[in-house]
Amino acid sequence: MSKKPLAEVLKAIGRQGGFYFSYNSNLIKKDSLVSVSAHGQSVKQVLDGVLGEQFRYVETDKYVILQPPEKEKWYTISGFITDGNTGDALADVSVFERQQLASAITDKDGHFSLHLRDREKYNSAEIVVSKGFYVDTSVSLIKGYDQELSLTILPETYALPDMVVTQYSGVGRSWFGRKLISSKLKTQSLNLGKFFVDKPYQFSVIPGVGTHGKMSGQVANKFSFNLLGGYTAGVEGVEVAGMFNIDKRDVKYVQAAGVFNVVAGNVEGVQSSGFSNFVVGSVQGVQAAGFMNKADKVEGVQASGFMNVAADTLQGVQAAGFMNGAKTANVQASGFMNIAGRVRGAQVAGFINIAENVEGAQIAGFINIAGRVKGVQMAGFINVADSSDYPIGIINIVRSGEKALGVSVDDYGTSFVTLRSGGRVLYGIFGLGGNVSGSSVLAGMEAGIGAHLPVYRKFRINNEIAAVSLTDARGLFYNEYSVRVMPSIRVGAFELFAGAGYNVSFFNYKPDAPLVETRILYSGMAVAQQMEMRIGYKGGIQVHF
């Protein structure tokens, strides 16, 4: 039948079966439209398909009476747990039922109380008593009746193996664990350290309040939904929380929380939170947080608004708004600072990079610090390294490189005391000086980068790109940008250099006639300033130290 009133469908079933239905009209919505297609099925199968499984069916003569389900029956198992040798009452003993995962912990008098459902699928109640340093004790009881027990448990004669501390033991001692996991749940985890089960799903409000109750820390789930927060043995599927997730073991595939995630095992897949992710073990995949990520080893991507920490190895990308830290890393990028023991790839920061060894590129807005660099070391101001052939920065402090301090003068009489520092190939230029022209005294600074081109033994050509800025601090200025080629001869610690360059200058004041006649290529106005292009000259002497 297709889209027929429920009352009509029930009559048709009754006619074919040779019986009548009897029911309270308040229970059945007779006018609701239903569709059914059944062949060779029992009446119960057809009714379950039409009505669902929320009704009970009672047969009386030629009537099938539709009744609401009985209210679920509960029964209580309570009692006392004592020490089998001393007879003393034992507190903090875990008592749980294996099939329903109901649990209780004894109080200071050794008393417990378990509330169990009376379900048809359970033939008995399987009670387990467990406490650290004691032998686990099991007992099978007839279900459905309130019962009171007196049980004794014996101390374990070789208890140490049961108490071996692993990485999974640490979640309860973490800051989040101490604040959010109750002492009873921690005791439960200690007592039931070897007992773990898998379940298809979990729903909880806070740790200990949910479908698995106080046993949640011993249950691994395929799907876990935590309204505020959850505490589980682990997840192999999806775990979502409004505020936080805490997992004692491994998490696979997807874990998301509004505030933070804490995992004592390993994470494989995607872990995201609004504030922080904390993983004791390793991460394979993506770890993203609004504030901070922390893990032992990371293979994949670790991204946060503030800080990333890989305690051991990062193979992938580590990106943060403030700081990244790792012993070894492939790609580190942050708005402020990167710290790593060894980098194979790129280390990029808005302010500072620190590494022992870099094979690739180390780029920072202000300073790079490294032991040995195989590749490019680029900073907006300072590079520091034991060995670096290609530092790109204004000041480069390379232990195995070159450092020279010298004086120079150009064709307009502008003089500088300049530090040239770098590696065997690239070096930085930083100088202070000025120009005295007529009644005007202009102070200035020179900055740029250069490259050595060896020709023959003590003779080489220094190629430089530099910027010069002069001002009298009262409104006069002269800014010049140069590309110059300067052959040099080195004798001992001294180096003589001189050469020509292509210069572009912007100014509102130009120094007096040059010391050496220059060739003006262009003179005019640009960007509301006077502009000049010319071939200029520069020479000087510097001493290496």
Largest sheet descriptor: 20 strands, mixed
Rg (C-alpha, Å): 40 Å
* Broad shape: elongated
- Round the mean pLDDT to the nearest integer and report it: 88
Indicate the percent of residues in helices.
under 10%
Task: Kindly state the number of beta strands.
Answer: 41
Strand content: over 45%
Number of helices: 4
Unreliable residue runs: 159-168
Compact summary:
The protein is built from four helices and 41 strands. The N and C termini lie far apart (100 Å).
What would you note in describing this structure?
This protein has 4 helices and 41 strands. It is mainly beta and 545 residues long. The protein has a 20-stranded mixed β-sheet that branches. An 8-stranded antiparallel beta barrel has the order 33-34-35-36-37-38-39-41. It is elongated and about 125 Å long. Mean pLDDT is 88; it is low at 159-168.
Write the layout of secondary structure elements.
Layout: E1 4-5, H1 6-17, E2 20-22, E3 33-34, H2 43-51, E4 56-60, E5 63-67, E6 74-83, E7 94-97, E8 102-105, E9 111-117, E10 124-130, E11 137-142, E12 147-153, H3 175-180, H4 183-191, E13 197-206, E14 209-210, E15 219-226, E16 229-232, E17 234-241, E18 244-247, E19 251-257, E20 260-263, E21 267-273, E22 276-279, E23 283-289, E24 292-295, E25 298-304, E26 307-320, E27 323-334, E28 337-349, E29 352-364, E30 367-379, E31 382-392, E32 395-398, E33 402-410, E34 415-422, E35 426-437, E36 440-456, E37 459-471, E38 477-491, E39 494-507, E40 519-526, E41 529-544
Parallel strand pairs: 2-5, 6-12, 13-15, 15-17, 16-18, 17-19, 18-20, 19-21, 20-22, 21-23, 22-24, 23-25, 24-26, 25-26, 26-27, 27-28, 28-29, 29-30, 30-31, 31-32
Antiparallel strand pairs: 1-3, 4-5, 6-9, 7-8, 7-10, 10-11, 13-14, 33-34, 33-41, 34-35, 35-36, 36-37, 37-38, 38-39, 39-41, 40-41
